[in-house]
Amino acid sequence: MRRMKKCGYVVLAVFLLTNILSGCGKKQQDSDITQSSKTVEAEKSKVTICLAGDPATFSPFAPIVTTRYNAMQCLYETLSVFSTAQGFQNVLMESYECIESDETPVYRIKIYDYIHDSENNPITIEDVMWSFESAKEMNSIECASYFSTLTKVDDYTMDMEMASNSVGSFETLCSTLPVVSRAAYEASEDEMSMSPVGTGVYKMTDYAIGTSISYERNENYWQKEELRLAQEQQTNVDSYTYLIINESSQVSIELQNKTIDFAAVSNDIAGTFENMDEFEIITFQKLGTEYMFLNMDSGSVFNDNAALRQAVMRAIDVQALIDGALDGYGVALKSIALSDFEDFNPKWEEEEYFDYDENQARELLKEAGYSEGELTLRLLCNNKNSRDKVALIMQEYFAKIGVNLEISCLESNLFKSESANPQAWDIIIDGDGGSNVCLAQYYISKFDTRGYDNNVGCYNYIHDDKFYELVKNAVGTNTTSAATLDELQQYMKEQAYARGMYSAQSLNVGNNNIFKTYAFTMSRIVPGACTYVWNE
Amino acid sequence: MSKYIIKRLLLLIPLTLGVTVLIFTIMYFVPGDPVTQILGANATPVQIEAVRESYGLNDPYLVRLGNYLKDVFLRFDFGRSYITKIEISKELGKRLPYTILVGSVSMLISILIGIPLGVSAAVHQNSIADRICMFIALFGISMPQFWVGLELSIVFALKLKILPATGINGARYLILPCFASAFGGIATLARQSRSSMLEVIRSDYITTARAKGLPRSKVIYKHALRNALIPVITLLGTSLANIFGGSVVIETVFSIPGIGTYMMSGVNNRDYPIVQACVVLLAVIFSVVMLLVDIAYAYVDPRIKAKYERGGKMRRKDNG
């Protein structure tokens, strides 16, 4: 009896504790619901978006990583913006022309003469030049090295001489390097790390480290309504907040709780929302290419063995990789990059591109001098973007033709070190080019001859002068054409040094009660350009 | 006693120095180049060389170690992040309060639940209450922190909708991470309290106290518990260290901007100065906690206090 009584006390205590905790949570929750109810009647429209990591700094010249780019895209502006949907669009730049088109082209750039930032600091060409030179000096944004000299013409015009004649360099440079007022930057105590001042359509109102970033519309935006053509210049929502959540399961919970209205998610998480009416799964085609490179260094099995290269390339069914590793969210490539780019030749769509053929692969393997089970290859990849799953499926396909595949799936930094060692791998799968502006640029980043000279740029150590000559012609601003690109495409197919495999799609989940349409750039959402229920 | 505390505080210096040298050496030999992370895979050797030179990464190991020790111990400067270029000391200053807050509350929860649970189990040995307590303890020890955290989020944030799942914008945001973090501590403390208590309540002096007709509660809480707490206090120190060490997991799961998430970003980006600074800081916190634990012994057990005082007097006599 006494024991029963005590058990009763314990149950009562637990019950009381639960009520206390629930009660204190409930009261706050109610106020939160009121706060986060984003109805049409709300005085100021607001959305909350998930950000997968803390940007840590808002300095305009900090290295570009995805989370930082997302957090800063509405604060700072560039001379122009690029996306496959809207093309190359001027923002700060009023016009440009190529005034010299030799080995190092020179562009004359004119900016609008009425630009100012959110604190009314005027922006002149000197600010642009200072911003570009600062980025170059800090060595933190890769494309800052694409220009060699800047010359002031007048207060709003400058001449920019490029460091090389590589196609797409000018566009990448103009759409990547942010421009800020030198006066504002120098007045800032922390290099704008925590207190950004830019010319963007939104300004930051609050930043709780590692937790949230809030923005509101910049009422003092400089550009005239009729000239705000880029989607980055739209302001369809008064304010928005990024909630920083690293853990993917927590993202799913916060979406279902309506704490966040939009999030980029993984395939597994997206499945949770498939049958929920209030949510929409939005796919967006990423620009990045997933490549397969064969090691062409002098000691490699692939060097001087074209039949083996062809055998390996034809042993894999890329569509099966997409279906198995990405749940079908991807596009098989017919070249080194997507067909969305203007310089993609439509005829390539109809042509054969390392098509999967197990029997042919087996024959080629025999022709290469290997019997079934004799050859073991080492595949190197990093553990990001489902590449580990892709590697496992590839292992199965190689086993079908009698090739053993040893997989080394490393953490990304270690992968970078290992990939630079030609003795450490035979095949690499890796991705690149998420912010490229044309197909030819994909050749520049992985096969540029200057890169090869430095033993850095050419990923798989190709020793072939003809190949580099073709790359040079395909990527030079004066020589690039449908013909030179086609010649390179055909040569790549013939030699099978490397191939584009697929381009993945980004998966996102949005709240249908808030969003009507979604706007993306480089697979990142642009909150100001989306349309919402209050825009109807 | 004060001399002992000063001696222990002085011991912190070589300990911190040792930890700093050790973590610097480990990071030095970790594969992966931070410059590739800073500049991207397509950087030219000239660019790489320029950055390596500017960060002193080309210097020999001993020069780099010497420079680092000089900066940390003479200037109290942990340097700047390779990636964000932000001063690490400032960033630690912003993040440390969150880690300490979550850690302290978790510890408090562990104590408030774990010890009574253990005592109650010991007092009612072999009863249903004892078995339930020990089941909870076993469950708590076996479950990984991240799993407990996610389960708590699913139940309280997603299903019941009474608590927030992520962030740290007020007291109620602390509940889930603190309980998730405290879960292991509750279990360990409960098990230790139970076994210590069982040992003590079988002692002769407890039998004597009972025979004298003292009330049961007085016997348990005044005579037995105080003596049973000594091994529990030792465990408190290691539990708190585990909680701070586990902050990497808890802070990542619940999006708390503390030292744990900072260290994680440092590891992922090969941002050596961040990792080094976080480890040194956690080592100092751990040392201070262990010192507090030792001091707490003296207050709980008069024999230990007397030993310190006697030691001091004897030394004074010898010197005199």
Question: How are the elements arranged and paired?
Answer:
The complex is a heterodimer of chains A (536) and B (320).
Chain A: H1 2-36, E1 46-51, H2 66-72, E2 80-83, E3 87-90, E4 93-100, E5 106-111, H3 125-138, E6 147-154, E7 157-162, H4 169-176, H5 182-187, E8 202-208, E9 212-217, E10 239-244, H6 248-256, E11 262-265, H7 267-272, E12 279-285, E13 289-294, H8 306-314, H9 318-325, E14 330-332, H10 358-367, E15 375-382, H11 387-400, E16 403-410, H12 412-419, E17 427-432, H13 440-447, H14 449-453, H15 465-475, H16 482-495, E18 498-511, E19 515-517, E20 520-521, E21 524-525, E22 531-532
Parallel strand pairs in A: 1-10, 15-16, 15-17
Antiparallel strand pairs in A: 2-3, 4-5, 5-7, 6-7, 8-9, 9-10, 11-18, 12-18, 13-17, 13-18, 14-18, 19-22, 20-21
Helix pairs in contact in A: 8-10, 9-11, 13-15, 15-16
Chain B: H1 2-29, H2 34-39, H3 45-54, H4 61-74, H5 88-123, H6 128-142, H7 145-159, H8 172-201, H9 204-211, H10 216-245, H11 247-253, H12 259-268, H13 272-300, H14 302-319
Helix pairs in contact in B: 1-4, 1-13, 5-6, 5-8, 5-10, 6-8, 7-8, 8-10, 10-13, 11-12, 12-13, 13-14
Description:
The complex is a heterodimer of chains A (536) and B (320). Chain A is α+β, with helices and mostly antiparallel strands and 536 residues long. Chain A has helices at 2-36, 66-72, 125-138, 169-176, 182-187, 248-256, 267-272, 306-314, 318-325, 358-367, 387-400, 412-419, 440-447, 449-453, 465-475, 482-495; strands spanning 46-51, 80-83, 87-90, 93-100, 106-111, 147-154, 157-162, 202-208, 212-217, 239-244, 262-265, 279-285, 289-294, 330-332, 375-382, 403-410, 427-432, 498-511, 515-517, 520-521, 524-525, 531-532. Chain A contains 16 helices and 22 strands. In chain A, strands 11, 12, 13, 14, 15, 16, 17 and 18 form an eight-stranded mixed sheet that branches. In chain A, strands 1-10-9-8 form a four-stranded mixed sheet, covered by helices on one side. A four-stranded antiparallel sheet of chain A has the order 4-5-7-6. Chain A is globular, with a radius of gyration of 27 Å. The relative contact order of chain A is 0.14. Helices cover 80% and strands 0% of the residues of chain B. Chain B is globular. With 320 residues, chain B is mostly helical. Chain B has 14 helices and no strands. In chain B, 40% of the residues are buried. Classes of the chains: A alpha+beta (536), B mainly alpha (320). Chains A and B meet through helix 1, helix 6 and helix 12 of A and helix 2, helix 3, helix 7 and helix 12 of B.
